[in-house]
Amino acid sequence: MAQRLHPGGRARSGERSRPRGSKRARREAPAGAGCLRAWTEENDGLAGGWRASRSSGPGRAAQQAARRCRLAFDSLLRKIQGLPAALPSLSLELTVLYNSLLFAVSESDGLVEGEAERINHGLIRVLEACGVSGQDLSTEELWQKVLQDVTTEELCAPLHRLGALQGAVWLAANCLGSVTGLFRLLSDTKGPLPSAHGGENELLALLKAWSVPVEGDTSPLVVQSTKDLKEILWTSAAFLQGLQGLEAGNLPTALSLLQAAASGFCSKRVLAQIYTCIGCCTQQMGKPQTALQHLKRALQVDFQCLSALSQAALVYRQLGETDAELEALALLYKALETPAQEAVSIDPCFLIRTELLVHTPALASLFSRSHPSEVKYLLAQRCLQAGRVGEAVEHYLDLLALLQEGPQHQVPLHGRSALPRIPEVFLEAASALEQLGRYQDAIAVCEEIISRTDDLIPETLRIELDSGAGGEAPGRAGSPSPGIPPQQRESLRCIVWRAAAYLHQGRAWARLGESKEAITRFTRCLNVLLRVQLVSAASIQSSEEMAEALPEAKVLQKIRLLALLGRGSQFQELGRDKEALMNFQHSLQVCPGDPAATSHLLRALWKLNRRQEAAALWQKLHADAAPADGQQEAPGRCVRPYPLYLVSCLKQVNLPHDESLARSLQDYLRTSGQDP
Amino acid sequence: AAGSLLKNQEQPFLQTPSLRFPDQVWHVELLPLRRQLYILCAGNGIYCVSLDQQSRLMKQTDGDDKEDACPSSVFPVDADACIVPDVTLCTFTLLNDVLVTLSQAQGQWWMKLHVLLDPDQESQPCRQISQVGFSTCDQTGDDGDALSSHFLPVLCCASAPGTAGPGEGLWCSGGFTLEEPLFSLLFGIDAAMLDSPMILCGFPDGQLCCVPLKALNSSEAVDACSEVAGQVPPVKILHHLEEPVVFIGALRTEHKAPDDPDDQQLFGDSGCDCVVVVGHYGKMVAMKAERGEEAKVPEVREYYLQGPILCAACGGGSRMYYSTHSDISAVDLDWVSNASDPESIDNTAYVLPPVLSPASLSICSVVALSLSSRASEGTLLALSAKGRLMSCDLCSPDDAHPIRLTPEKAGQRIKELLSGIGNVSERVSFLKKAVDQKNRALTSLNQVMNVSAALLSNQDGRKPVTCTVTASWSRLLLRDTWAISCMLENSSECSLEQGWTLCVQLFTSSCAFDEDSVDSATTFTFPIDQLLPGSKREVTLPLGSAEGTKLELPLTVSCALFYSLREILDSASDSYESLDDLLPDGSPGLSPDKEGICLPLSKCTIDILQCLRLDDSTVPGAPPSIATLSDPVETFLKVSRVQSDPSSVEVSDQLLPKAPDALGDEYLPPSVASIKVSSELLKNALKSFCEGCRSLRTLRGSLICLVSRAVWGAAWPRITNVEACGSYVAGLPGCSNIQIPSVRIS
């Protein structure tokens, strides 16, 4: 078996502490020394110049300097590779390749296709110089061949250095298997891994075990030391695998890997990201307090890490600490108002950084910058849900203003945005305004929806519900259920929004005491709803099945119920009890057994002195109400909650328990001898 | 092709400076609020030029140079004016202070939103706000690449009515306002409620996409390359034209009540009710809100016009103008106005006409169109392919129908016209032929002049056209032949066209440098059909075979290019006298008999060293250990070593060069080798070894030293004795007698 290269342990005598002046003398003018020396001097000059210039810190100047360096190294490499590969110059060639690639990877932001190709070419030249053909081999095979067949001692260090860079390129491409294989080759795999005790990640152990080639005085200068690169590789490998574990739901492993990564060598920004990931991980493991600690730490490390704030808001929400959650969201909003700091594209001290090597979709989505309008919406929504109507109204009004602003404030409309459809935002705002008692404003906001949907809804919308759709689990909002064309679905949504807007207007007018106006709005609402014709297949019988097939259908039904009840109440106000009764009866047909409808009807019947009917209804109500509770749906079923803009209507529609009515009903029943 | 831009619109006779851009200008937009012109230059980015700055520039030139009679002075554009440097940019559009660009990178289209900043307050001219990717070019694959090289995407902006007041409305050139039902139907309620203008985008693959300007973002943050599952960008695909989109515009197909003056006033503001998209090959799509009872959807109708369509323009009316290579045509999408009964307008649903009948304007080769006024049918501005700007007054479709002719008169008129057309076309074809001939002659003369100028003006440096002579052994017709090959390489910018001849003259050694004995030389000529810039051609002259005639060495080879003027003058004119007028006496490079132009290329000497043949490929049974050595020097060394060893005579026999028979008796095999040294190596070696040494002897010494050390010193440590033997190297300037060592291994 061919002897493998192993850089450790050799040439440790020549440490870097030797003064630089001795460098010239040591070169024993080997073959073709002229060129070799000139090239080495050029390389050392460039690398030295870069090392000297990097004290100036990151910035535009550093970027330009890096670009110049890359070009210079490229041209030097072209010069060297213009001649056939020769053993004496290979060490220099590989070093120049390493330097040039460092700049290229750093500049390309981790997109590394061309770089991989150049490493391949370098390896093929190494094989050529040794008289071995390396054509038609994959990069992995090339590395295997090179590391097994090339036994020249001088090439060991540059090859290992290049290997580390190859590892970085593969990490950036998420090829963890290739990296592991490479480091198995690079480390001395004959002996057992020093820390391969149970469960420890193999790649991390390999990286730890890999001994960095010594950069003695005899070797040409490099722009970033392999030692740094090793540290960064280790951190990146831990972070990347931790992220993958987090994505796969392998939480304990992910946690240990991420904790390892946090102990590694990285920038503050990355450290904050790692802490945030740990926070996510522990939160998913059911340890919200630990999660909060880590998120706080992330913010301490880098306040620009806004994802930690939004994650913290989520955790607080889980914990039910609304105050803290709102505070976090408000902070997040404030932070978002200041423009984002540009990411430093080139850090002169570390050309290869963890940022460049860790790319996963999970990371991108976790650390995508949320939009101010999203956060504002969350604030408004949470306030409304928590019953802080005043704050909610302010946030909603801010949000509406934000939405009207110019294109500089972008509104996220994509599927993963926290923001719902725009008409729903308006409806929620109207609902909040109404709850606060700003009825005219609520009416105006609803008017906007009504005018916008004017042209969009057809005279009749006939939707055939497929029985196939019935088996479909109710998806999240926006996921089109099969069988209904998207165009029809959009029309249906428009109808729902328009009807809801009329409903809110009706309620607002009712509160203002304008019963006639209110009745007009409720009637319009019902007319809009009448445009929808749901044709269900034979298999869909109950309203529950219908709601499953088409979630909007359930909302539609509820709006109809609320409009009928609202109109009935207004008729009662006007003293038109018979019409009121008709509306209540109708509402009970729409939602059979609905407690609110029943109690309204009961009261109307009693008022009209139709006591017998009222008593029968009362008994029925009591019989039904025993197991079920209020407006709560049957428990155990996965029920989609009603839209936020309907929640307050649904709450308020329930009549307060009328003690006197109940007593008189019981009296009536007792006297008529039908005591329950 | 360098683009230049001439601003000459308001006062046609004002002298205005023009700007020269580094590459083709693809798109120009005017931002009147800031008095700025935005220009997209291919492969460079977007430049911003202030009109005030332009006039200042103009004044300066007027002051400096009053004598300047040239109507337009050309200035190169300032590199600092490039506000968005991006080589991948394909098109852009402007909306007040917002710049929307479309670029192609990583196999995707990227729409980016920039905000133009106030140059007085900010350091940057603009800041990128957000971006969104369109993955349309992936689907087309290779075809898409081919298409996109020819066609640029089209961007335009559609706004909803009432998004801004009439005075300070959104300025957007090429944009339009859409009437309400259509806007919401096409773009959805969210965009309508956000009051967001929509960016419409037509791609070369035929897709028509739209994205709200206020929601120009995808859910991905930074890393746009990896696909995130479930990502729904707010991009909507409106239609797929299946051919490159060349135009997106909007029309007003329904007339407002003419008796309402207020309405007339608001005509421009109420917007258009029909979006039209035109494809390059003639497909046109019109989209209009349908007045149906059922689910509201925009009506989409496809029409087929005669392509290829280069450009199109719409005004506020119902007509669209489009230009093919041969004509400008107008199509009218006003369907209702053609209905016979005006009472039935209300009953008939407003739909699009089933077919279109284009009306010709008889203006050809127009590459850009614009309607000067959006509100009414005003003036059509057309830019021809040759750069002429035409303005055509359009008559409104309502008035000014052409005067009706009686059938008899019409017949007579047609006859007259037809005969007139016949006459003209005959004459045209005759003249065209003559012009073509002259043009061809001029083109070739121009090329000849270019080549000559390039070669003659460049005496000392590297010539743009070179001829490299190499001698080698090759196997021709089962015989080993020694041949000279001349590699003609054209690294100039002009191509060598038909008419050029490569002349190779061979002088034998005795008379190589003797002027009188020119006649004894042999001349070979090779016609060059066409040699494009950057290409090479090799010609081979077999000189002798292994068993054949004796060669006299050294041999001087002289190469020259010759161009016969007779040929072009023959084709251009019948008279020969013009030749003397054309070329005055004493023109350099003209041959004595004035028959052509002769341009010497190179002269070199082939000597005995180059006849040495060292190839082991012909040896069938060579031992593998030696056969794997491909380096001739090593082969040579091996041979030398084995030769000195009598026990391996067989091997050395097989490896011996086979040339000596043909080369003469004085040739001693294999004591001589020619060594090629890389110029890079030589330069470096000379720097270190030979600093300060001037004399030839030292140079020779260093050469010996250098070669032995550089080549063998390391790789061949067993060499103990380096000795100079009588051999000969030619070609070094100034010294014809440098001795180079042969190597003898003891």
Provide structural commentary.
The complex is a heterodimer of chains A (676) and B (746). With 676 residues, chain A is mainly alpha-helical. Chain A is built from 31 helices and 2 strands. In chain A, strands 1-2 form a two-stranded parallel ribbon. Chain A is elongated, with a radius of gyration of 36 Å. The model of chain A is unreliable at 1-31, 467-481 and 628-638 (pLDDT under 50). Chain B has 746 residues and is of the alpha+beta class. Chain B has a domain at 18-403: Methylamine Dehydrogenase, Chain H (7 Propeller). Chain B is built from 16 helices and 36 strands. In chain B, the strands form 10 sheets. In chain B, strands 13-12-14-15-16 form a 5-stranded mixed sheet. A 4-stranded antiparallel sheet of chain B has the order 3-4-5-7. In chain B, a hairpin with a 4-residue loop joins β21 and β22 (319-323). The interface between A and B is large, with 61 and 63 residues.
Give the helix/strand layout.
The complex is a heterodimer of chains A (676) and B (746).
Chain A lengths: L21 H5 L6 H21 L6 H22 L5 H21 L5 H17 L9 H11 L3 H20 L3 H11 L15 H8 L16 H23 L2 H12 L5 H17 L3 H14 L4 H14 L2 H16 L16 H4 L3 H6 L5 H14 L3 H16 L17 H15 L2 H15 L7 E5 L1 H4 L15 H26 L3 H16 L1 E5 L6 H7 L1 H23 L3 H14 L4 H13 L3 H15 L18 H10 L5 H13 L5
Parallel strand pairs in A: 1-2
Chain B lengths: L3 E3 L11 E3 L4 E7 L4 E6 L3 E6 H14 L9 E3 L5 E4 L3 E7 L2 E8 L2 E9 L9 E9 L2 H14 L3 E6 L16 E2 L2 H8 L1 H5 L4 E5 L4 E6 L23 E5 L4 E7 L9 H5 L1 H4 L3 E6 L3 E7 L8 E7 L6 E4 L4 E5 L4 E5 L26 E2 L5 E6 L7 E6 L4 E5 L13 H50 L8 E12 L2 E12 L9 E8 L14 E7 L7 E10 L9 E10 H8 L5 H5 L13 E11 L1 H4 L12 H4 L4 H13 L4 H7 L4 H4 L15 H11 L6 H18 L8 E3 L16 E3 L3
Parallel strand pairs in B: 2-6, 12-13
Antiparallel strand pairs in B: 1-2, 3-4, 4-5, 5-7, 8-9, 9-10, 10-11, 12-14, 14-15, 15-16, 17-18, 18-19, 19-20, 21-22, 22-23, 23-24, 25-26, 26-27, 28-29, 29-32, 30-33, 33-34, 35-36
Helix pairs in contact in B: 7-8, 12-13
